[in-house]
Design brief:
Length: 373
């Protein structure tokens, strides 16, 4: 088959982007041709991929999205494909990978009523409706059960069009036999003392991921403990606002902001705790990546994959609604209790051996490639 994939932006370190790449590669390995439509492509192009970057510009993102769709549809009219797979919501998709939550639900419950008069709202609402409307034909790959009832509530989407996927954690995230050596080399490279505790927060979109909450929690630690803690925040985002917050809280050089990078497994092995107090998170792949690396996790309950942390007993899950005081208490407890962290780490490694958390690309490819009537 000739397959086409479309996503607004590709860069190597985003969760959606990594999922796209693994699914596309799985389809290619099964003998199918891959074409990609996008607005931005950063990084290497895999051998055999045809990547088309739309030559469009617009002042507003939603107008640029519309121009991408028109440009792509014109090309597809000349060069048809057997399947069009989207990683962002838009009309005309055969299959949609639901990395994002229900836009209409957020617009109705988290925005002022005037918001729904804006052109931006109409664009995203129309594009979502094109995927989930009852009479649409798009098959939906769901990576979290949390959002499915919301789509059904707003669009009456038939249940049979949803395909719930298992997580798709890359096997290279599992702790290797030489994990202790990698950890020692990593900590030496970053000049971490034996008694220092490394806290990591990983993910693009610092505001959504709750970096402000993390900084407040670190600042609230008892003085003696705080002096032993270093925080590394890693992701594709502008850190300026959070650097100002960090300075105002007096955290100084105890906090580092790093751009997205390809050696995240080293950070998972070298750290002592992953913190992820997100405001909103459909899944949270990094939670499972930490779990299978043997890194304890502190996470907010809104994350779609937070339940895996509780089931594996691989860390602590915050109550909902979120309270900063609880995050402060849990962080202090987890950093102070070495034996508890060791137990959470061991539980995560056991979970890595038994849970089906690796096969998402294979299941997604099955749905993409299955015969259509």
């Amino acid at each position: 088959m000739q397959l086409a994939f479309v996503l607004y932006k590709y860069f190597p370190f985003g969760g959606l982007q990594r999922d796209f790449m693994r699914i596309a590669l799985e389809c290619q390995q099964r003998g199918h041709s891959i074409r990609v439509y996008t607005l931005i492509w950063e990084g290497e192009v895999p051998p055999g991929f045809e990547v088309l970057v739309a030559p469009v510009k617009a002042f507003f993102n939603h107008r640029r999205n519309e121009k991408l769709l028109s440009w792509m549809q014109a090309d597809l009219a000349k060069r048809p494909v057997d399947r069009l797979v989207g990683f962002n919501k838009m009309p005309g998709l055969d299959v949609y990978y639901a990395a994002d939550g229900c836009y209409e639900d957020k617009a109705q419950n988290l925005r002022h009523s005037l918001y729904r008069y804006w052109g931006r709202y109409k664009h995203f609402a129309d594009y979502e409706r094109a995927v989930f409307a009852r009479d649409a034909r798009t098959e939906v790959l769901m990576i979290s059960e949390v959002q499915q009832p919301l789509f059904i509530k707003h669009y009456d989407t038939p249940l049979e069009r949803f395909h719930l996927l298992p997580p798709g954690i890359s096997h290279d995230r599992r702790a290797p036999p030489n994990a202790a050596l990698i950890r020692a080399e990593f900590r030496g490279e970053f000049m971490l003392e034996d008694d220092e505790l490394l806290l990591v927060q990983i993910g693009s979109g610092f505001k959504t991921k709750g970096v402000d909450r993390t900084l407040k929690a670190v600042a609230a630690l008892p003085s003696g403990l705080r002096k032993r803690v270093r925080l590394m925040v890693i992701g594709q985002d502008d850190p300026k606002l959070f650097q100002v917050q960090s300075a105002a809280l007096g955290l100084g050089d105890r906090v580092q902001f790093l751009k997205g990078r390809s050696d995240i497994p080293r950070f998972l092995l070298g750290a002592d705790l992953l913190i992820h107090p997100a405001y909103n998170e459909n899944t949270g792949t990094v939670l499972l990546e930490a779990l299978v690396a043997g890194l304890p996790v502190l996470v907010s309950a809104v994350c779609g994959y937070a339940h895996y942390i509780a089931e594996a007993d691989g860390g602590l899950v915050l109550s909902e609604p979120f309270e900063q005081e609880e995050l402060n208490r849990y962080l202090q407890r987890m950093l102070e209790d070495d034996s508890a962290r060791a137990a959470w780490a061991a539980n995560g490694l056991l979970f890595a051996d038994s849970a089906d958390i690796y096969s998402m690309p294979q299941h997604a490819a099955d749905v993409i490639l299955e015969p259509r009537s």
